[in-house]
Amino acid sequence: MTYREDIDGLRAIAVLSVILYHFKFTSFGGGYIGVDVFFVISGYLITGIIAREIEQGRFSFLSFYERRIRRIFPALFVVLMATAVYGLWGLYPTEYKELGGSIAATLAFASNFFFYSLSDYFRPDVEIKPLLHTWSLAVEEQYYLVFPLFLVLAYRYSRRLVVPLIVGIGLVSFALSVWLVRSQPAAAFYLSPPRFWEMLVGSFLALAPLPALRARWSREIVSILGLGAILASALFYKSGAPFPGFRALPPVLGAAAVLYAGEHGTSWVARLLSMRPMVVIGLMSYSLYLWHWPIAAFAHLWFDRPLEVQDSWVLLPLTAVLSFVSWHFVERPFRKPGVMSRSRLWATNLSLSGIGIVLGIAVLFGSGFPSRFTPQVAAMASNLEYDDAAVYRRGTCFIDSNIQSASDFSTDVCLARDPAKPNLLLIGDSHAAHLWIGLKEALPSMNVMQAASTGCKPVIGGKGLPNCVAFMNGIFERLNELHPSLVLLSGRWSPDDLPYVTATASKLKADGWNVVVSGPIVEYQIALARILADADRDHHPGLPAERLVSLPKKVDALLRERMASVSVPYVSVYELMCPNGVCQTTTSDGDPMQWDYGHLTKQGSIELAKRIVKQLPFAAGTDISQTQ
User: Fold this and answer.
1) What is the CATH number of domain 387-522+551-576+609-626?
2) Per the confidence metrics, is the pTM higher than 0.85?
3) How many other CB atoms sit within 10 Å of the CB of residue 428?
4) Terminus-to-terminus CA distance in the chain, angstroms?
């Protein structure tokens, strides 16, 4: 396969999409699709190389993995080392502990499993995980652990079945991706099997006997459609939309179309991608990808807020400089076979990987070395590792829609009525789940039932992931069976939710239910536990007030008006948290009220619930035990 400048240009499109997305250029809301373009390119190029060597009788697994080591490890080691050194200064113990685990997982090419176990890619807290982006390296390397063996065996026993087998496996992988996007989105995003089809598209293109595009007009049409599909996905997709699944088809097939058209001659797109600036960026794309995310994550922590597009004036040049140094002095030299003998390369790689894994595990089991900070700062920062499982009843009454389905909801436990007490039904997302323990403590004479799922607003027929809509509709359909004395709707409300929650509250009231809507809670630009630790460390007590998010207060005012218009009782959680305009940040015990950007700790929930119950209808003299 001869060198094609347009492929490096396509790499440039891919990496720029990812970087601009992560650096908060709002026009590139779907820039994450750049990773999918990389997968196609990788499958196309490496499959072509392996197939040619097999046909020539000179393929060697040892030589193949030697090339992978030269390509992947040197620059990766440098980035991991720099991240670990900076993290020793810039990360709190719980954060550094997680970084140690992610370094070990990255060197074992299992970081996709590591991050899958932690969170959803689109959640706010992932923006401070410096090695999150290595999940894609893990997926790719897992593919190349099995694909060369598959290709060797297929060529040996039935060469004519190679392409049909690739098609069949690819279709199974794609079907798995589509299914998991609906049922377990995090698994669809991070795990290898539902991602393999993207690399298999590239492999198919490299091996299938497709007709040549000899006419110039045919190449122009195919390449323009392909590039258009990639750019449209990067520009018009939104963060948080179900992905990959069907939404991955346009960028994946678009990349394949550009590669296919470029095989058979020049085109306008090929000339554009072959421009020198595009080629240089493409040549540096691996280093650019490696460096940009740790820079973004550490900047997020340095600023104590999410990144804004104006930050790119500093971050983009810094990324470019570090990437150029990495590419010129690390990547390029080590890719030359003569720089280091094969035996020395393997020995060095295995030694450094082993040392890195051991050190990462040491950091993990050393709890991130808390002695680096004062006991007060370390204690406050330890809340960043707050375990909400028992407090929120995660996995039973609060299901994680990223890894669970409605069938995991424990109806017998969560919706058990008590005939001897009034029954309160709490419905919502995580911002409902964090109220359960507080309401239970504040209302000992009531039975508090709970139905909650991550990201699922408690509205009838609302928008959202199919599993959310189905879950909520199923709960509302059971009201006659549950017969609650009071229905409390709580969620992380946004302006888009207002028509749905208004309609839902109105319908419940019209149907004869006592319904109360709980408003949005105070939110911070970054985890409150970290802000409070920073405030203590830097002697800056006013920092929490500076890091308040303004939207919840605005939504609170709008939602209050909406509920008043339909005569539905409303509890302003925001005002209860911020009496006289000063928001409570710590509990009576000195712990944070909220451990992340907005979720309550156990004691925070208890203290807030004591105020909430005074706003509920029965507090004004209504005997709800006699209603319904």
Assistant:
1) 3.40.50.280
2) yes
3) 28
4) 75
